[in-house]
């Protein structure tokens, strides 16, 4: 599904990714853990095609195809989804309107027919109920005045509707209390599928109690420095990142 | 409205042709010579078959105009206009335009394509020579004539007068004399004075006491629509307890060989009357280098002359190279209300200086201003507004909200509010924000699969929602589409 080889990326003259190697096979859930500033969020932006990053070396293969020159919206239509750490607000645009615009834009890009409003409403209703997203919330402007938990639930709702092949969850647990974390994690777990890969980026181990990964990677100073099973997350929780920061430096 | 537009234009053309009422015979030319003089004013008046009092009115305005100088206070820049190098009267058929669509700015044609305007109609809008003559031969004419006839019948039954102002001057001189120039005096400002001297045509609406106009009046349906030219004059009167909603403009960009447009619109609302005036303005903004666009210097003013009267302006401005326009309300009657809802979009090299004036004279008068300016490209977008309370305007209230949205980093948004209060009990509130479409907001949309143009359209439509909601339904949908098209290519 996703193969990253020797990926180097910088912003201005600041090198952030320094040779990332990572393979996420179809249907697997991989976690990336690491201290602040290790390049986790940059990796998620570079994968999803955000402007402003110079990719100086390496390759990103998605479904066997190089995507470095692909614009963000094409990557989205191809099935890459990023759940944002800080979802953006769009005043005056109802959440429902946004969801429909996004879904139909992707369908159009893939050469599929746009959904009719009743079909769309049916899909939203099913997905929203599972995530405790009320109709009232769907009518409100996108993320405007949403609580932290509402914003994150809204991200997962979008993921459920857009049905990506690769979902990147960037610090999805940040700003969530324990109940909200459970709702969000249940939502994510319900979307686990043999056809879908996930890359879960997190600073803390607690999210991985709920979304149990197949593989855990440790990132430090712009590289994957260690990979292992779910037990690696527990080890990090106990010992912290100190060893890795020193090792990388 | 493109679909209906074709039919409607056909009808108006037919009507024009049917109105070959005798011009004064010694004037044979269809076009007055260049330049402006008393003779030209006389020529226009004679062409319109006007009574003596109207000619005098025009001449007085002309003499006044000679003593005036162009206003310089607006934040717009353009080469000096040579008023002696303009034509002040030309019959519609004598206009010179491109020979075929091949000679028309391709950008403009692309816009027509996007708006889904039929080919033949594109020729008309682009001003291709002879395009309007050819259209008369099209079949659907009879049906459309009956549409207009039905429409006129219904208005007549209600006692509503809706006709060209030139017709009103001849048919209803007493009403015209009483109200023309009573809101925007001939001495008002440089362009209004010029308009008073040389106005070509425009609309006249009279709603009798207690009548609620049975339909939205639209310039589309007016006779002589294609004949109004560059100096349009509109007068709308709502008698006691009357109500009317008037729509002006067209979403398709109109090309015109007249670069200068100086219209005057006057509204009068008597006791308990309400006038709602909506505009969608989309004149040709010029090519990609900013050349050839229309200068739109308009004076629009409403007089809430009666107690508890209400005037509401809603405008969507996307066209013109330069817009200089301040639809205003004089709140004279006690408890009268004025509203101004505006969306001004500028892109390319467009310059917009627009806003409103709310003059509170009566007691407990209320006004509300919602202005949304969107600047993209290398454009400049200024909101200029005055809210004032006379010393007798006790309990006057105003709420103003001016929001500006910037797209890109080469455009400018400016807000110039003037607030004057001579009454201690007046309460004026002013809110203003300026924001930029942030890169991360845009990226969020792209990541969900929207193209950058779809993303901008979505964000902008969210931004202008409060104003769009004020437009009549059929206008609202088109206005949204138009705004998106106007901003295409604004994000690189």
From TrEMBL, chain A:
Keywords: ATP-binding, Nucleotide-binding
Coiled coil: none
GO MF term list: ATP binding
Domain ABC transporter: 2-246
UniProt cross-references to Gene3D superfamilies, sorted A to Z: P-loop containing nucleotide triphosphate hydrolases (3.40.50.300)
SMART domains for this protein: AAA (SM00382)
Alphabetical list of Pfam families matching this protein: ABC_tran
NCBIfam families membership: sufC (TIGR01978)
Family: Belongs to the ABC transporter superfamily. Ycf16 family.
Name the record gives this protein: Fe-S cluster assembly ATP-binding protein
Organism the protein comes from: Kaistia dalseonensis
Lineage, top ranks: Bacteria, Pseudomonadati, Pseudomonadota, Alphaproteobacteria, Hyphomicrobiales
From TrEMBL, chain B:
Domain of life: Bacteria
SUPFAM superfamilies, per the entry: Stabilizer of iron transporter SufD (SSF101960)
SUF system FeS cluster assembly SufBD core domain sequence ranges: 221-463
Domain SUF system FeS cluster assembly SufBD N-terminal: 156-213
Family classification: Belongs to the iron-sulfur cluster assembly SufBD family.
PANTHER family: FES CLUSTER ASSEMBLY PROTEIN SUF, UPF0051 PROTEIN ABCI8, CHLOROPLASTIC-RELATED
Name of this protein: Fe-S cluster assembly protein SufB
Record organism: Kaistia dalseonensis
């Amino acid at each position: 599904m996703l193969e990253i080889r020797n990926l180097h990326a910088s912003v201005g003259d600041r090198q952030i990714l320094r040779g990332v190697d990572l393979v996420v096979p179809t249907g697997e859930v991989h976690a990336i853990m690491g201290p602040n500033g290790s390049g986790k969020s940059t990796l998620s932006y570079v994968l999803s095609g955000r402007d402003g990053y110079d990719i100086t070396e390496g390759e990103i293969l998605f479904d066997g195809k190089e995507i470095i020159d692909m614009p963000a919206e094409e990557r989205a239509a191809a099935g890459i989804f990023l759940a944002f750490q800080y979802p953006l607000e769009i005043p005056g645009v109802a959440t429902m309107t946004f969801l429909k615009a996004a879904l139909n834009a992707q369908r159009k890009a893939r050469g599929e027919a746009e959904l009719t409003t009743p079909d769309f409403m049916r899909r939203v209703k099913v997905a929203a109920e599972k995530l405790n997203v009320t109709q009232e919330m769907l009518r409100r402007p996108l993320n405007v005045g949403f609580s932290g938990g509402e914003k994150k639930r809204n991200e997962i709702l979008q993921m459920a509707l857009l049905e990506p092949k690769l979902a990147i969850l960037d610090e999805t647990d940040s700003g969530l209390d324990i109940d909200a974390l459970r709702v969000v994690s249940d939502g994510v777990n319900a979307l686990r599928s043999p056809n879908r890969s996930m890359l879960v980026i997190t600073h803390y181990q607690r999210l991985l109690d709920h979304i149990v990964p197949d593989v855990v990677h440790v990132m430090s100073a712009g590289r994957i420095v260690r990979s292992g099973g779910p037990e690696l997350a527990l080890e990090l929780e106990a010992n912290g990142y100190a060893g890795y920061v020193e090792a990388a430096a | 409205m493109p679909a209906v537009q074709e039919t409607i234009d056909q009808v108006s053309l037919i009507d024009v042709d049917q109105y070959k009422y005798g011009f004064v015979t010694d004037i044979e030319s269809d076009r007055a010579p260049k330049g402006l003089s008393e003779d030209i004013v006389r020529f226009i008046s004679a062409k319109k078959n006007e009574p003596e009092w109207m000619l005098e009115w025009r001449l007085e305005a002309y003499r006044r105009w000679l003593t005036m100088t162009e206003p310089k206070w607006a934040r717009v820049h353009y080469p000096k206009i040579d008023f002696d190098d303009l034509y002040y009267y030309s019959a519609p058929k004598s206009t010179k335009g491109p020979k075929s669509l091949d000679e028309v700015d391709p950008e403009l044609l692309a816009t027509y394509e996007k708006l889904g305007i039929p080919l033949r109609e594109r020729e008309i809008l682009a001003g291709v020579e002879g395009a309007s003559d050819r259209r008369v031969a099209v079949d659907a004419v009879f049906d459309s004539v009956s549409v207009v006839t039905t429409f006129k019948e219904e208005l007549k039954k209600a006692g509503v007068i809706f006709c060209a102002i030139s017709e009103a001057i001849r048919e209803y001189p007493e009403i015209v004399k009483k109200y023309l120039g009573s809101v925007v005096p001939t001495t008002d400002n440089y362009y209004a004075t010029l308009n008073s001297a040389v106005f070509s045509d425009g609309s006249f609406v009279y709603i009798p006491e207690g009548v609620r106009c049975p339909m939205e009046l639209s310039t589309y349906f007016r006779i002589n629509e294609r004949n109004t030219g560059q100096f349009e004059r509109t007068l709308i009167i709502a008698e006691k307890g009357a109500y009317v909603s008037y729509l002006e403009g067209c979403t398709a960009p109109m090309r015109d060989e007249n670069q200068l447009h100086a219209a005057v619109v006057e509204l009068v609302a008597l006791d308990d009357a309400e006038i709602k005036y909506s505009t969608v303005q989309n004149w040709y903004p010029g090519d990609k280098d900013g050349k050839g666009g229309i200068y739109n210097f308009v004076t629009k003013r409403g007089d809430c002359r009666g107690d508890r009267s209400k005037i509401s302006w809603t405008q969507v401005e996307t066209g013109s190279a330069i817009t200089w326009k301040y639809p205003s309300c004089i709140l004279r009657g006690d408890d009268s209300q004025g509203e101004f809802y505006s969306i001004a979009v500028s892109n390319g090299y467009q310059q917009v200086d627009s806003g409103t004036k709310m003059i509170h004279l009566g007691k407990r008068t209320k006004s509300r201003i919602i202005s949304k300016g969107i600047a993209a490209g290398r454009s400049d977008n200024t909101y200029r507004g005055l809210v004032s309370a006379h010393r007798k305007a006790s309990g006057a209230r105003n709420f103003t909200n001016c929001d500006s949205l910037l797209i890109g980093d080469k455009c400018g948004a400016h807000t110039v509010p003037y607030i004057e209060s001579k009454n201690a009990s007046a309460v004026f509130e002013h809110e203003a924000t300026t924001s930029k479409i942030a890169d991360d907001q845009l990226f969020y949309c792209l990541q969900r699969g929207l193209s950058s143009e779809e993303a901008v359209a979505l964000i902008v439509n969210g931004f202008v929602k409060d104003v769009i909601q004020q437009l009549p339904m059929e206008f609202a949908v088109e206005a949204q589409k138009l705004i998106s098209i106007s901003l295409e290519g604004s994000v690189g």
